Amino acid sequence: LIYLPGLLWLPSAGSAWLDVWLACCLFAASWCLSVLLNSVESARAEIYPFKDERVTVAAMTKFVGVFSSATGLLPQFVLWAVFSFLARSGVS
């Protein structure tokens, strides 16, 4: 959806339509993300009615989030440091 203006037309230099389109797409994406996170947080209280269960699940969610962020950032740091064909093929 974000790439749609580039496929349909090329705005002229100095045109603000592409910036407006990007802002609208980012606004819609951030709204969808906030709705998703709110629904997950509200469902957690229904799925795990006891406080001890919710604390355990929240802690595991944080550990998994840190691990997945580190897993995603490590190849990016490698590519920033070593930008060779071997490094790019190994990361992909």
Structure overview:
With 92 residues, this protein is mostly helical. It contains four helices and no strands. The chain has helices spanning 4-8, 17-47, 51-81, 85-91. The longest helix has 31 residues, at 17-47. The radius of gyration is 21 Å and the shape is flat. It starts with a helix and ends with a helix.
Give the strand tally: 0
Write the H/E string, N to C: HHHH
Q: Which percent bin holds the helix content?
A: over 70%
Give the helix/strand class.
Answer: mainly alpha
Describe the largest sheet: none
Features:
92 residues, mainly alpha
Quick structural summary:
By secondary structure, this protein is mainly alpha-helical.
Layout of SSEs?
Elements: H1 4-8, H2 17-47, H3 51-81, H4 85-91
